[in-house]
C-alpha cells in the first residue's frame, strides 16, 4: 500500500481528458486530495480547459509516469486503450494505478473496490486497482447494507442510464439528435441495449453488473438479473432494484439499514424520491421508493454516473490508500 500522507502531497497523473478525466480533475480539487503535482495526459499534447482550469496536456507514454504516485486512467478500453498499454509501465515506475475501464475488473489479482462496501480488498494490492462499472457502483452501495443485515438470495435490476455514460459522443447525440453513439435515436426514446449482446441474450453492460457485483460483495453465486436501458437524460443513472433476502425483514429494519449506510442519502419519507436531475453534480447515492414485503425489498436508486459512478469512487479509493479524510 501507499504510505500515509506525505508533508508535500502526491504527484498524480490523470490519463484521459474526456468527461471522466475532467471529473477526476474536479474531484481531486473539490475533495482536497493532497496534491503536490497534477499531470493530465492524453494521446497527443495540447492545451485544454478542464473544469475551468487550463492544462498543458502531455503525451501518455511510459516516461510520463516518472515520479508519479497515483495514476488515474479514464480513457479508452481494450487492447489499444491506455490502461492496457501503459498501466504496467506506470506501476513499474512506482505509481499506484486506479483504472476506470473494464479491462482488469474481473482479474482475480486485481481488487475491484467501492470503498463503502469492500475497502478491505485494497490490502495487499499489487499496484493496480479497478474502479467498477458506473451502474454497478451505485447498486452495490445500496445492496451492501442489506447483505450485511439480512443476506441476499437474488437481485433483479433495471437501469435507466444517462447518455453521458457513453462519453461526449453520447451527449452530442442527445443534443443534436444525430450521431452514431447509440443503435437507435436517443432523443425522446428508450434503448434497452447497452453494449454487445452475448450468446445468453444479456448485453456486456448487464454481464458487468452481474459479475462485478458478485466480486465486490464476495458472493460469487449471487443471482443477478439485469436489464440495462439508455434514456435521454444527460447525467445521472437511475435503477429499479428488486431484492430477495435470506430472511424476512420489517420495513423499519430496512429503512434503518439504508439510513445508516455510508454513502447513501435517504430521507425515509415515502413522498421524497430522488431523480437524476437532483443527483447530477452530487457525489453520493440516493435511495427512495422503498417497499418491503417479508423477505422481498424493492427500491429506486440514483447517482451521478460521472461522479460516484466514476471519478468520485476512484478518488475515494486513493483517499483510502493514503488515509485521507473523506470530504
TrEMBL record:
The Gene Ontology terms for molecular function here are: aspartate-semialdehyde dehydrogenase activity; NAD binding; protein dimerization activity
Picking any one GO biological process from the record gives: amino acid biosynthetic process
What Pfam families does the database record attribute to this sequence?
A: Semialdhyde_dh, Semialdhyde_dhC
**Gene3D superfamilies named in the record:** Dihydrodipicolinate Reductase, domain 2, NAD(P)-binding Rossmann-like Domain
**InterPro entries in alphabetical order:** NAD(P)-bd_dom_sf, Semialdehyde_DH_NAD-bd, Semialdhyde_DH_dimer_dom
**Matching CDD domains:** ASADH_C_bac_euk_like
Q: Does the keyword Oxidoreductase apply?
A: yes
SUPFAM superfamilies in alphabetical order: Glyceraldehyde-3-phosphate dehydrogenase-like, C-terminal domain (SSF55347), NAD(P)-binding Rossmann-fold domains (SSF51735)
What is this enzyme's class at the first EC digit? oxidoreductase
- Keyword Oxidoreductase in record: yes
Active site, UniProt feature: 134, 237
Enzyme nomenclature, EC number: 1.2.1.11
Sorted alphabetically, the keyword list is:
Oxidoreductase
The entry assigns this protein to a family as follows: Belongs to the aspartate-semialdehyde dehydrogenase family.
Q: What's the protein here called?
A: Aspartate semialdehyde dehydrogenase
Q: Which organism is it from?
A: Rubrobacter xylanophilus (strain DSM 9941 / JCM 11954 / NBRC 16129 / PRD-1)
The organism that produces this protein has a lineage beginning with: Bacteria, Bacillati, Actinomycetota, Rubrobacteria, Rubrobacterales
